[in-house]
Specification:
The structure is a homodimer.
Chain A: H1 4-13, H2 21-34, H3 36-52, E1 54-55, E2 62-63, H4 69-72, E3 80-84, H5 87-96, E4 102-105, H6 123-131, E5 137-141, H7 146-160, E6 165-168, H8 184-192
Parallel strand pairs in A: 3-4, 3-5, 5-6
Antiparallel strand pairs in A: 1-2
Helix pairs in contact in A: 1-2, 2-3
Keywords (chains A, B): DNA damage, DNA recombination, DNA repair, Metal-binding, Zinc, Zinc-finger
Organism (chains A, B): Thermomonas hydrothermalis
Protein name (chains A, B): Recombination protein RecR
Chain lengths: 199, 199
């Protein structure tokens, strides 16, 4: 009964994460009623992005050029390489820290049951890069999950075998957290890994 | 530092209602990582919808044709006309009830302070339609808000002046609601408007 094109739009919007039938409907009506220009612009940029954004040949992050802006930058420290699971993780580290080295984006984590092995994560590319000898420290910033830890373990071995020092992010009590509400695993880890208070 | 096109995409996604910087980022990465085809399809349908969907000349609902499918349908009862504020309201009534009449979509409600008067809601079009004499009953289904009620009042006068019977949706305790938790206004209204229990 409704406009077929409108139904198509509602259906197409459901491809977005966390958007169900009701939100898609609300979005479609919002765009039609109040944001025609924004909608047109979104359609344009989206088509471009889907067609042009590929992976950086060097770090596997998203990039519209063969080499991403970061890998191509001459001002980054080529001796430090930080390995992350996703582009979102890279962005989080880039925004939160003063890290001036380079990144390598796995686009996933080791998960043999899902058929995700070293090849799928581009670890051959990483191994080759470590063998080039430019990288001195491999900062492993995978997520502190079971699969992330397994991946970290694998990466550390990969680095050591090539004479590169592997490090990983410190685990412990989050800043601003209250001990009472910190989960047991984290608290136990933070307690065991306590550090000297320096003067 | 990030791909400019990716940043443009994240920015463009923020036009969607309820989508901020963080969600937009998550959506962009999701589309790039897992839903390229869906993203392409969305871009295509969105561009089409923004360009082609206009308002039905008769009911003001969204339509890609001059007359929407519903207004063009020969199987609907032309004596009943239901007035709603938005296309979403029309859809809700269409999905929930067995209503077989036609609709008129105001695309808003009377709100003099925002410069929304009878002309903006297409009430001249509605008045003209009521004068044609085909409509016998005008079902006013505006929202039970202050502005919606004012609009309903205006519409009822408009109908009466043209010999059309105005009706409105019943207000009362919602089905499945518990009296204890129903707001006072609704409860008082439902109590005052109590109806005979028929055998």
């Amino acid at each position: 009964m409704s406009t077929p094109l409108l139904e198509q739009l509602i259906d197409a919007l459901k491809v977005l994460p966390g958007v169900g039938a009701k939100s898609a409907q609300r979005m479609a009506y919002h765009l039609l009623e109040r944001q025609r220009d924004g909608g047109r612009r979104l359609a344009e940029v989206l088509a471009q992005a889907m067609a042009q954004i590929d992976h950086c040949q060097r770090c596997r992050d998203f990039s519209e050029t063969p080499l991403c802006a970061l890998c191509a930058s001459p001002s980054r420290d080529r001796h430090l390489l930080c390995v992350v699971e996703t582009p979102a993780d890279r962005l989080a580290i880039e925004q939160a820290t003063g890290f001036r080295g380079l990144y390598f984006v796995l686009q996933g984590r080791l998960s043999p049951l899902d058929g995700i092995g070293p090849r799928e994560l581009g670890l051959d590319l990483l191994a080759q890069r470590l063998e080039e000898g430019e990288v001195h420290e491999l900062i492993v910033a995978t997520n502190p999950t079971v699969e992330g830890e397994a991946t970290a373990h694998y990466l550390a071995q990969l680095a050591r075998a090539r004479g590169v020092r592997p490090t990983r992010l410190a685990h412990g009590v989050p800043l601003g957290g209250e001990l009472e509400y910190v989960d047991r695993g984290t608290l136990s880890h933070a307690f065991g890994g306590r550090v000297e208070i320096r003067e």
